[in-house]
Amino acid sequence: MKCPVTVIGLGPMGATMARTFLANGHPTTVWNRTPSKAAALVEQGAALAATVSDALAAAELVVISQTDYTAMSDSIGDADVKDRVLVNLSSGSPDELRRAAVWAGERGADLLTGGVMVPPPGIGQPGAYVFYSGPEAVLDRHRETLAELGDAAFVGTDPGLAMLYYQAQLYLFWSTLTAYMHAVALLGSAGVSAQQFRPLASSLLESLTGDGPMDFLRILTEEIDAGVFPGGANSLRMQAVGADHVVEAGREAGIDTAGPLALRDLFWRAVDAGHGGDGLAGVISVIRRPRPEGGA
């Protein structure tokens, strides 16, 4: 018999996880603060626990997918979690995850924190992966079961690391696609369709990580790790001036300029901090040392 699993939280993500475990032959117990959300899963073979204590008693491995980390402690309350492996795949801040690990440890449980890098329909599908942090030996013990959800990528023992990786990936994803939308809107003001622009955008994105001398992601990474940001003929000051022009073009086109303004201001802050002669990688200096909170 495959490893039994309990799933706590049956929103779109948790329900999909429970279905995935069921489809792969795992005896699956579910619990949700609104029991009616479990109806379809019960029809598919899940056992609905009457209480959170019953849910925790049903399996050593407890996968939690709720709104946030506060929901975990609120739901579990004083229920016995001793000798349980709590795998929390909810969202939160890294420090919240670290505090949750202490909370679980004080109650005799192990906490694995995770960040799921696909939307609900992607759970258990090819290409799905989940960042995990916490005790690696605990992950290894349950890796086969958790791999039903997606590739289990261990990133370190610090419980906050899974969320840091998760949020770093999300920020890169969102900001890249939002920049594309801004570019589409800018060109759209002159009657250029998104389909017309797409091949050029695709070519640019491929060049960022392509092999060869123009692999910008590799170049930027090496410069950041070395702490050396050669500007040469393409200084950050020149790029800040270019960013001024992107903002002005957006204003002339009548589109929202909040994103380009934020980028332009970041560039000029780096220039004002003495990095005008550096290359683009010099911007990392002000990102790592932001202005005081509340500063202009």
UniProtKB/TrEMBL annotation:
Residues 5-154 form the 6-phosphogluconate dehydrogenase NADP-binding domain. Residues 158-289 form the NADPH-dependent reductive aminase-like C-terminal domain. Coiled coil: none annotated. InterPro entries: 6PGD_dom2, 6PGDH_NADP-bd, HIBADH-related, HIBADH-related_NP60_sf, NAD(P)-bd_dom_sf, RedAm-like_C. Keywords: Oxidoreductase. The keyword Oxidoreductase applies. Gene3D superfamilies: N-(1-d-carboxylethyl)-l-norvaline Dehydrogenase, domain 2, NAD(P)-binding Rossmann-like Domain. Belongs to the HIBADH-related family. This is NAD(P)-binding domain-containing protein. It comes from Actinomadura napierensis.
